[in-house]
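INTERNAL AUDIT FORM
Audit reference: QA-55
Scope: verify that the stored structure record matches its stored sequence.
Auditor: D.O.
Record contents follow.
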Amino acid sequence: MTTSTLLPNICFRPKGQLLKWVGNKFNYAEEIVSYFPLEYNKYIEPFVGTGAVLATFCPREAIAGDTLLPLIEIWDFVRQCPEKLVEHYRVNIARLNCNREKTYNTIIERYNNHPNGLDLSILSRTCYGGVVRFTKEGKMSTPMGPHKPISANSFGERVYEWRERVEKVKFLHATFESTMSLAEKGDIVYCDPPYIDSQSILYGSQKFNFNELIRQIQICKQKGASVVLSIDGRKKSGGKEIKVETPHHLFEREIFLDCGSSMLRRFQNGGKIMVGEDVHDRLLLTW
């Protein structure tokens, strides 16, 4: 495995991120996309999440999946009914601006009783630092953040910009195994799974098997697809490197991306600015 610094292919990210979510790749999506092959058949993303890499790449044909149904509902609203998503945000942000704590508690209780994309879009933009955290029972448990959420006009502008970028994407409520099984020769597969070192903190209700993901990556590579994996790299400003076991020669290149300070660590420490808590993600490529 070699370390690469080549940036052969530049795409530009949207003007602003649509969903505020800790761990999302918005700030360095351009660098990730820069390593993608210049020629491809279709793009596949089995852990689409907030879609930062997807929207930056703007694929001509794509399949994106996630096991969190409310997330897929958000993307379906963006593509098919953006006005409903924008109106829901406008009404609830107006209520939140009048009575922050009561409105936030109402929304999170409503979401936990009936998980849905409309309320999740509000919570992602108003919870503390975008730390969308779930309990083992699947309930969102993050308190309200001290920040002022973006205005309804700004959110609307972002929804319609992102709509243009994902209009050719087929979104699936599916496991990563199911989504990755659709890969064929010449495709690009980008995997951004729950990270090993923070999985139990953020994704209490989500069962995820890293070894099974590695097996699916092997299958995709054997089919002739190019696979990119984002996974834990270094923490503590380089002082702690997360060990990731992968088969010999599955990945040909390893790249470390500077992600800045850890918002998750700041959340765990009551909002204090953390010194020596810079994070570097590991990017692994099969070619």
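Auditor finding: record pair retrieved intact. Residues 264-268 have pLDDT under 50 and may be disordered.
Action required: none
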